[in-house]
Amino acid sequence: MARYNKARYEYETSPKKLQPEYEPLKKQKPKKKNVAKKKELATKTKKKNNPKIVFYIGLVFVIFFAVSYRNALIAQKYSEIKSLKTELSEVEKDNKQLEVNIESKTNLGAIEEKASKELGLKKLDDSQIVYVNLDKQDYIEPSIDEVKITENENWFEMIISKIKSLF
Q: Taking the domains of the chain in order of start, what are their residue ranges?
């Protein structure tokens, strides 16, 4: 049979926990209604703060949305400006090219050369010039029909004159 020995050697490093011989009695406080009311007020104030928190979060979201929308509009306008600048530079380039073409085609030397080589034209000689003498009479004949000039009449006078012309 195994023998029970209180003084035997223990191999553990932690000491045995001793139970105190005397345990003090804890006083239980009666629950008061005020404590319950305080808890209810605390939960109500937390509930009241929740709409504020939601409002602030919503406000922050709206501000971020407005800023990002503004940045998007700025980026869009910047890209429009950039495309218009490139289009302007292309139009200016075409304009300069057309000016050079016009200057080259309006050069008198180039026109004379083209007329003589391609069209077979020659410069006028004095023998080719014909002078015409015109009489100093007026060849315009006056019109036979009379043109009735009407002065600015108001609508009432026009109606009266039309009625008179019918009778």
A: 35-131
One DSSP character per residue, 45-69 reads: HHHHHHHHHHHHHHHHHHHHHHHHH
Tell me how crowded residue 115 is: count the other CB atoms within 10 A of its CB.
13
pTM over the 0.90 mark: no
Q: How many CB atoms lie within 10 A of CB 149?
A: 5
Instruction: For the chain, 167 residues long, give each residue's pLDDT as a single digit of tens.
Output: 455 555 565 566 666 666 667 676 777 765 555 666 666 666 665 555 677 888 999 999 999 999 999 999 999 999 999 999 999 999 999 999 999 988 888 888 888 888 889 888 888 888 888 888 877 776 677 667 665 655 666 777 878 888 888 87
